[in-house]
Amino acid sequence: MSLLEVRGLTKRFGGLLAVDDYRLDLPKGEIYGLIGPNGAGKTTVFNLITGYIRPDGGSVRFEGRDITGLPPNRVSELGIARTFQNLRIFRRLTVMENLLIGRHKSYSYSLLDTVFMNSRYAGEEMDGEREVREVMRELGIHEYADRLAGELPYGIQRLVEIGRSLLTKPKLLMLDEPTAGMNPKEAEELISKVREIKESFDLTVLIVEHRMKVIQGLCNWVQVLDHGRIIAEGTYDEVVSNPKVIEVYLGGT
Ligand SMILES: Nc1ncnc2c1ncn2[C@@H]1O[C@H](COP(=O)(O)OP(=O)(O)OP(=O)(O)O)[C@@H](O)[C@H]1O
Ligand SMILES: [Mg+2]
To answer: Ligand 1: which of 35, 42, 86, 177 to mutate, judged by most atoms within 8 Å of the beta carbon?
Structure first.
């Protein structure tokens, strides 16, 4: 059984068919890639799966359960985490604070506990910090724990966002152009970091990327989207040698 199974997913924006009959069978433990030119519908697919927008048709099943149209917080609770093409972090909070927010959904103390800082809260907060430190070490950003996120290089900010998503304890991690704004060295490092966190957090990964090197270095299977439709899928080598894909990327020249 696939961890994530998508069938007939469709989304219109006015007269534009942004996603048209999209399907996916993503087995547990795999890293799949979703590529395609600007405006192909990649982010819309992510938004549909994670509940940020509702589909006009089709279904999304996660661990066999129908999650179609559930709101983002429910999707997150069920074990799907995503990052955003346009980085979403709190620039005026520290790295530690940004990551503690990711852990928030698993806190069990009540609001009153928070206000009075009772012992249960203190206990959980310590556990929380320990988990956050582990994640920071894993991503190699522990030295920035007390720095304001907005003051750090873009590549580090991207890792902060990934770290926050990991703290929601996902089974499926969806990365929307994680190397956007990174320099080539940071992008190279991201490849090995994604491999590492996949193993240590027992993740399945779906990644949208424009850098082919990242797709080649990570993905066992690649789908190519153009004008909302899957025009090719297969291994990296198969899709990059597919004439339809070459045409889409080179504009038919
Ligand atoms: N909320 C929205 N309202 C109207 N149109 C939208 C909305 N979101 C996306 N679109 C349109 O849907 C199409 C697909 O957009 P989407 O952002 O999914 O593409 P993408 O493949 O992620 O592109 P990019 O590589 O540039 O990120 C585009 O034509 C876009 O303008
Ligand atoms: Mg996009």
So the answer is: 42
